[in-house]
C-alpha cells in the first residue's frame, strides 16, 4: 500500500524517460568524468541572459519601488500587463489591452491556467504527436481527456486526421510552434487551414473550440523563417509563453497568457485565467521578474549561436546517414531511429551520448537531441553517433 495516489504513481512512471536520461548522465559523469559524457537529453539553456536583463534587474535592485514585493492582482501588475499588451498589439496589429494579458509562472504555468479556466470534466483536448510530454499531465490534472493526432514526416499536423478526431466533447487543441521536440514551425497555410476546420466543425457540432499555442521558443527561429501568430486564423485562440528560452532564465519561472482580443468570450476568459492563479495556489507570478521582463519584450539571447549549433550537428549527422527533418526553430532535433528507439537510445548511452527516445514524446521510432549545450559536448558526441550509425548500417 502506498501513501502516494495511483494517478501520481502512474504519471511518475510515464515521465521516467527524460528523468532516466538525466539520472544516467549524473551517474556516468561521476563514474567516467564530465568530459567523457555528452548529455544531449535536457532542454536546459546554455547561454547566459542578455546584458539588458542584468541591467533591468540592477535598476530595480538599486532603485526599489515601494511595495514591490507585496501581493498584487492575481493576473499581475496592471502596468506590466499594459506594457506587454502594447508589445503584443504592435506585433499582431490587434487591439490588445492589459485585460487580455495574465502573468504566469512560465509557459507551463500559463498552460495550466488556460486549461483550468477552459475545461469541464471529461472534455477532450487534442494533441499533435510528437508533443511535450507534460501536456498529458496538465490535461489529466484538469479532468480533461487527451486525444492524439499524428503529424507528417516534417511534423506538420495531419489536418485530415484532426478533422476526424473532433467530437462534441472537443474543447481545446493544444499546439506547440516552434515545436519541442522536433523544432518544426507552423506556417500560415497550416494555421489558416486549421482555423477553417475548427470553424466548420464548431458550426456542425454547435460547440466552441479553442486553440492554445505553447510558444516559449517563438523568438528562436532560424534562416528568416516566419512564425505567424495564431490569433488571425481563429477567434478563440490563446498563447502561452515564457522567457525561459528567449532570455535564458528558466529558473526564474516567468511568462504570460495572451487571449485573442477578437474572442467574444475574452473578457470573461481573461478574468477566469487570472483567477486560476489563485485557484491553483500560485497566487501570482514572481513580482520582481514581472517588472524586469516587461521592459525586455524585444530582447533575446544570441539566436545565431543556436543556429550554428543546429547546423553543425545537422550537417554531421546527416552525413553519417541519419534521417532528420531540419528544425526551423527551438533548440531540438528529432532524428529517425534506425531501430527501436529505446534500443537505440540505450546504444547511444553505451557510447556516452545521452538522448531521449521518441516514445517519451508520443512518437516511437525517433529520438530527441537537445543542442543547447557547449560546443565541446556537440563535438564530443560525434564519435558516439558515428559508432551507433555504423553498428546499424547507416554509414
Write a brief structural summary.
With 395 residues, this protein is of the alpha/beta class. It has helices at 6-14, 16-32, 51-62, 78-92, 106-118, 134-141, 159-165, 188-205, 266-279, 287-293, 303-319, 341-350, 375-391, and strands spanning 38-39, 101-104, 124-128, 145-149, 170-175, 210-214, 237-242, 255-259, 332-333, 353-354, 356-357, 367-370.
What does this structure look like?
The protein has 395 residues and is an alpha/beta fold. It has two domains: 6-49 and 301-391, Aspartate Aminotransferase, domain 1; 65-293, Type I PLP-dependent aspartate aminotransferase-like (Major domain) (Aspartate Aminotransferase, domain 2, 3-Layer(aba) Sandwich). 42% of the residues lie in helices and 12% in strands. It contains 13 helices and twelve strands. The protein has helices at 6-14, 16-32, 51-62, 78-92, 106-118, 134-141, 159-165, 188-205, 266-279, 287-293, 303-319, 341-350, 375-391; strands spanning 38-39, 101-104, 124-128, 145-149, 170-175, 210-214, 237-242, 255-259, 332-333, 353-354, 356-357, 367-370. The strands form three sheets. It has a seven-stranded mixed β-sheet with strand order 2-8-7-6-5-3-4, with helices on both faces. Strands 9-12-11 form a three-stranded antiparallel β-sheet. Strands 1-10 form a two-stranded parallel sheet. Strand 3 (124-128), helix 6 (134-141) and strand 4 (145-149) form a beta-alpha-beta unit. Helix 3 packs across helix 10, helix 5 runs parallel beside helix 6 and helix 5 packs across helix 9 (266-279). The longest helix is centred in the middle third of the chain and has 18 residues, at 188-205. The chain is globular and about 60 Å long. The N and C termini lie far apart (51 Å).
Amino acid at each position: 500500500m502506498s501513501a502516494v495516489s495511483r494517478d501520481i504513481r502512474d504519471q511518475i512512471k510515464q515521465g521516467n524517460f527524460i528523468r532516466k536520461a538525466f539520472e544516467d548522465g549524473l551517474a556516468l559523469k561521476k563514474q567516467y568524468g564530465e568530459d567523457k559524457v555528452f548529455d544531449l537529453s535536457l532542454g536546459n539553456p546554455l547561454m547566459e541572459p542578455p546584458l539588458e536583463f542584468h541591467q533591468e534587474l540592477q535598476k530595480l535592485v538599486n532603485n526599489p519601488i515601494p511595495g514591490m514585493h507585496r501581493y498584487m492582482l492575481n493576473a499581475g501588475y496592471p502596468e506590466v500587463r499594459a506594457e506587454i499588451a502594447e508589445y503584443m498589439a504592435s506585433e499582431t496589429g490587434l487591439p490588445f489591452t492589459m485585460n487580455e494579458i495574465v502573468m504566469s509562472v512560465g509557459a507551463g504555468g500559463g498552460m495550466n491556467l488556460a486549461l483550468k479556466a477552459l475545461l469541464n470534466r471529461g472534455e477532450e483536448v487534442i494533441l499533435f504527436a510528437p508533443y511535450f510530454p507534460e501536456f498529458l499531465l496538465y490535461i489529466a490534472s484538469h479532468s480533461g481527456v487527451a486525444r492524439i493526432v499524428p503529424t507528417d514526416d516534417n511534423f506538420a499536423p495531419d489536418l485530415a486526421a484532426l478533422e476526424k478526431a473532433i467530437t462534441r466533447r472537443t474543447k481545446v487543441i493544444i499546439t506547440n510552434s516552434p515545436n519541442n521536440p522536433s523544432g518544426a514551425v507552423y506556417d500560415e497555410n497550416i494555421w489558416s487551414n486549421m482555423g477553417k476546420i475548427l470553424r466548420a466543425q464548431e458550426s456542425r457540432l454547435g460547440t466552441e473550440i479553442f486553440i492554445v499555442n505553447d510558444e516559449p521558443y517563438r523568438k528562436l527561429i532560424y534562416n528568416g523563417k516566419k512564425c505567424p501568430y495564431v490569433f488571425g486564423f481563429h477567434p478563440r485562440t490563446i498563447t502561452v509563453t515564457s522567457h525561459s528560452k528567449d532570455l535564458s532564465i528558466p529558473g526564474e519561472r516567468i511568462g504570460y497568457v495572451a487571449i485573442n482580443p477578437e474572442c467574444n468570450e475574452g473578457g470573461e476568459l481573461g478574468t477566469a485565467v487570472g483567477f486560476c492563479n489563485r485557484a491553483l495556489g500560485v497566487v501570482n507570478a514572481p513580482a520582481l521578474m514581472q517588472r524586469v521582463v516587461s521592459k525586455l519584450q524585444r530582447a533575446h539571447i544570441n539566436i545565431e549561436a543556436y543556429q550554428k549549433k543546429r547546423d553543425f550537428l545537422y550537417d554531421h549527422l546527416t552525413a553519417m546517414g541519419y534521417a532528420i527533418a531540419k528544425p526551423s526553430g527551438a533548440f531540438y532535433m528529432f532524428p529517425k531511429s534506425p531501430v527501436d528507439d529505446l534500443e537505440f537510445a540505450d546504444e547511444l548511452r553505451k557510447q556516452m551520448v545521452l538522448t531521449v527516445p521518441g516514445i517519451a514524446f508520443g512518437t516511437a521510432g525517433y529520438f530527441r537531441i537537445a543542442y543547447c549545450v557547449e560546443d565541446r559536448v556537440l563535438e564530443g558526441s560525434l564519435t558516439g553517433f558515428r559508432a551507433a550509425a555504423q553498428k546499424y548500417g547507416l554509414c
